[in-house]
Amino acid sequence: MLLFWEKGYEGTSYADLCAATGVARPSLYATFGDKQALFFKALERYMQQEMRFLQEALQEPTALQVVETMLKQSALANTQQDKPQGCLGINGALACSDKALPIQETLNHNRAAAFQALQERLERAQREGDMPQATDAATVTRMVMTLTQGVAVQAKAGASRQQIHEMLDLAVAMLRPHVSA
């Protein structure tokens, strides 16, 4: 998982995979399948371990807390000291050519699912009177998703956790009137 996270799908070679796993190429195929199958297994593990904060954020009691938690936890997840910087999905998508269409489609599907879950949660907040009716939930969702993806890109590019938190504090302040009733 860490190798794909650090190098992306296409940046990870079979030699890299063999070196990281300590398994010879024929055994790697026999054990895990091809590189694409191994990437999908790594992505599934990544989603379960590193991205669970998304589901936790959706459980927050208010729209503002959902947004704050999603953004702040995104900063933490993308700037861990002992792991590659950025997000496996975003890093992979940015470095993926058209030759890796199944990878692109899966990563796009995952982002679309996260978008839909957040938008539905914000629409629920509107129905419950927690978020202004005049606010377009889809626009707020696009902004939050853009911010979380931007956090991943900035972390990969070397931005510090402190710099990312400062940017997110400003973003939350800008969003507050739109997500608080």
What's the domain count?
A: 1
Q: How would a crystallographer describe the biggest sheet?
A: none
Please write the string of helix (H) and strand (E) elements.
HHHHHHHHHH
Helix fraction by DSSP (H/I, runs of at least 4)? over 70%
CA-based gyration radius: 18 Å
Total beta-strand segments:
0
State the secondary-structure class: mainly alpha
Average residue-wise pLDDT? 93
- Distance between the amino and carboxyl termini: 41 Å
Q: Under the CATH scheme, which architecture would be assigned?
A: Orthogonal Bundle
The backbone outline, from C-alpha atoms, is elongated
User: What is the CATH superfamily label?
Assistant: Tetracycline Repressor, domain 2
Q: Are there runs of 5+ residues with pLDDT below 50, and where?
A: none
CATH topology: Tetracycline Repressor, domain 2
H/I helix tally:
10
What is the CATH level 1 assignment? Mainly Alpha
> How much β-strand is present in the residues?
under 5%
